[in-house]
Write a structure and sequence with these properties.
Shape: globular
Catalytic activity: a quaternary ammonium(out) + ATP + H2O = a quaternary ammonium(in) + ADP + phosphate + H(+)
Structural class: alpha/beta
EC number: 7.6.2.9
Subunit structure: The complex is probably composed of two ATP-binding proteins, two transmembrane proteins and a solute-binding protein.
Number of helices: 10
Family: Belongs to the ABC transporter superfamily.
Helix content: 25-40%
Largest sheet: 6 strands, mixed
Distance between the termini: 36 Å
Keywords: ATP-binding, CBS domain, Cell inner membrane, Cell membrane, Membrane, Nucleotide-binding, Repeat, Transport
Bound molecules: adenosine-5'-diphosphate
Order of helices and strands: EEEHEEHEHHHHEHEHEEHH
Strand content: 15-25%
Number of strands: 10
């Protein structure tokens, strides 16, 4: 579904944020990018939907180079959820969720029923919540809306950048459970950035552990725990010494 071939990113100031990354993400996979702050996770994620241009290498989505896509086609097919709740404050919840479906020129009726379906999916009563504004929701509820907004127009891929890290531990755990549940219902390809190993172990089919712009190990949670590639991995996953 998504392939990195010798992908590097050097910023204008010389920082080599991503250094020759090579991996493939399968369709339907829950793929976690993890590593210490500054190791290049967000940069890797943002290169996938061309928010950041690459300096070397190629990224393929569905076998096609991302540079060959029309930018809207690429982005509309990749829902994006941010750490900081990024709902439009002056729009109702319904309007927030409707942005991409409207760009795609869905009919009003289709959009309305999609909003109902999505709110129900995450346990927010549609007839109450669709008319509310973001400030009338708790942090956890807003983040839930952030997740379903990314799903609204039924993209194949969802990019999530530390979506739960601003939440209190209880809301966070609840949203992780919701995401597992949601994921079983929708079976999307999800690329999830976090620095929290417990979160990665709980959610990921496979985990890509990065250090200083490079991939250190790629494997299932079980493989990282039982067969760490080196001491860095061992310490990071906190497995047996
Ligand atoms: P992570 O998401 O793992 O915390 P990032 O991908 O955000 O890491 O950043 C990787 C490295 O690139 C860091 O050293 C960061 O300071 C640097 N970096 C990120 N964005 C820029 C930028 N726009 N210009 C220069 N350096 C940047």
């Amino acid at each position: 579904m998504i392939t990195f071939e010798h992908v590097s990113k050097q910023f204008e100031d010389g920082t080599l944020a991503v250094d020759d990354m090579n991996f493939s993400i399968e369709k339907g996979e829950f793929f976690v990018l993890i590593g210490p702050s500054g190791c290049g996770k967000t940069t890797s994620l943002k290169m996938m939907n061309r928010l950041i241009p690459l300096t070397e290498g190629t990224i393929f989505v569905d076998g096609k180079r991302i540079s060959d896509y029309d930018i809207n086609e690429l982005r509309w097919n990749m829902g994006y959820v941010l750490q900081q709740i990024a709902l439009f404050p002056h729009m109702t919840i319904e309007e927030n969720i409707s942005v991409v479906p409207e760009l795609k020129q869905w009919s009003k009726g289709d959009i309305q029923s999609r909003v109902t379906e999505l709110l129900q999916m995450v346990g927010l009563h549609p007839e109450t919540y669709r008319y509310r504004y973001p400030h009338e929701l708790s942090g956890g509820e807003q983040q839930r809306v952030g997740v379903i907004r990314a799903l609204a127009a039924d993209p194949d891929v969802i990019l999530m950048d530390e979506p739960f890290s601003a939440l209190d531990p209880i809301s966070r755990e609840k949203l992780q459970d919701d995401l597992i549940e949601l994921r079983n219902q929708i079976n999307k390809t999800i690329i999830f950035v976090t620095h929290d190993i417990e979160e990665a172990m709980k959610l990921g089919d496979r985990i890509c552990l990065m250090q200083e712009g490079q991939m250190v190990q790629l494997g299932t949670p079980h493989e990282l725990l039982t067969d760490p590639a080196n001491d860095f991995v061992r310490q990071f996953v906190g497995g047996p010494e």
